[in-house]
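Dear colleagues,

As part of the handover before I leave the project, I'm documenting each prediction I ran so the next person doesn't have to rerun anything. This entry is a single chain, and its sequence is reproduced below.
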Amino acid sequence: MNLFWKKMFGGMTSTAKLEKNEAELAREYDRYCEVGKSAEWAEFKELQAKVKTPEFKQNKKMLQTRKFKDTEEYRNITKLKKLQSQSDFKKYLNILSSSELICFLEFKQSEQYKRLADPEAVKNSEQLQRMKAYERSKEYALYTRYHDSYQEKEYLKLKQLVETEDFQKKLAFWSNPKRWETTEDYRLDARYYQLYKNDDIRFYQNTDPKKFDEIKNYQLTFEDNFDWNTLERSHWDNGFHYKSSQLKANHSFFNEKQANNAGHNIEVINGVLNIRTRKETVKAAAWKGVGTEGFVEKEFDYTSDIIQTGKHFQQAEGIFRAKIRCKGPIHHAFWLGAETKLPHVNIFHFNGKNITVGNANNQLFDQTKITGINANSFYIYTLVWRQKELIWLVNDVEVFRTSANLPTQPLYMALNSFISENQRGAQGTLEVDWVKVYAKR
């Protein structure tokens, strides 16, 4: 299938835009589900029944319009402020905390105070002279005027009252022109309108749930964004996967020009898996075939690798996807395999010249060639495996479909690069940004 014209005229969504759209749809679905089962949605309905009643509206109006001057708290705080603002009484209050007064009052309680009546003693003592001078001062006269007076008693009474927690709460409430906003009813009212304007609730009310049908029908069963740095921390193993653990997994085939290198050609760079095929002379195991010599040691001029999920993940049916690009005129592949040679499903296969997809089973191979796109660029390759058909897509464009020779057992995923015997030796890299698998709910 030629995808050139679809790319040119918008029939194929770009990889970046497709990823963005899918991520956005997934976020919207998560958001839709969360809002639909949220306490906020239930709370909104409950609040609506309260804040729209006549009683609620009447109480709101009273609290918003009552004047502060009509309250007892206003009268008491006004009296206190009037006392505090009287010039001499204000000075008196300041004198109370002066060190001179405190010192004199302590002195007055001592036996030395009696000596102030003795002029000779005062004459001979600097301390007595200071105390005598303070006793005759205007400050002390002001102190004696107000100490234990009616004004002070009234002041202390009011001060004690206004400093109580209850008074302060009432004063703060009634003196606040926005007192309504401090009430529990206001909180309910504000919460209602907050929810009424809430983006999530508006989003939920305005979203057609049909747009999520595909997401609702499938669940993520495998995901690798390649945030690991060693295979041991991943869900992949190097080498081929066989049913018997006694069989050699790390090998190449005799008719290939590269040795699979036990994971040494695997690395993750900035969250992208790299399978590198490089020029490197090694001796390694090569499978020559049943009925011949079996495994033989062969000298290879290149190394590469294969990784697969045989021990960690296998699945029958579902959606298998990967974001892939490759470099170099050699074979690169993303495929599904079984513990036997067949079935074998190529989700992506680049043979050095062309991209192909297809299904091999029962000695038959259905496939198609994909043209019009460059394997050096990232594309999302998808296999939709249904009970009665296999469908391949590149980005959002269907490229092949078959209902013949479908696999019936769970298959594992594999990624590899290799050099066939009819290819000139070359280096190359298979890059995989992510792999995701979904199963029908």
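Residues 15-36 form the longest helix (22 residues). The chain has a mean pLDDT of 93.

All the best with the project,
I.
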